[in-house]
Amino acid sequence: MLRILTVLLLLILITLQFRLWVGEGSLAEVHALQKEAALQKNQLGKMRQRNQALQAEVADLKQGLEAIEERARSELGMIRKDEVFYQVIEPKTRQKD
């Protein structure tokens, strides 16, 4: 009877060890899943940085249109269709030699 109990306990131990090392939920599978989760966290961090950069670019473009228009008006003399452009030219003064 003791021999049967020993064999039975040994079979249970072998079965549990097999599941621990090879079966579903094994240490190898857990390690692989942890590695995959770390890679996905890394990708998520990169994507968040990219999204922040894109959001900043969109905000600059939304606010920047006014700045671009002002610069076009002052530096390039551009006007809108419904505006009238007046250019004031001051007379040059002659210098005596």
What does this structure look like?
By secondary structure, this protein is mainly α. The chain has a domain of 30 residues. The chain is 72% helix and 0% strand. The chain has 2 helices and no strands. The mean pLDDT is 85.
Instruction: Report the order of strands and helices.
Output: HH
How many helices in DSSP terms?
2
Structural class: mainly alpha
What is the tally of beta strands?
0
Rg, alpha carbons: 38 Å
Task: Describe the protein's topology.
Elements: H1 2-21, H2 27-76
Summary of the model, kept short:
This protein has 97 residues and is mainly alpha-helical. The longest helix has 50 residues.
Give structural attributes:
mainly alpha; 2 helices
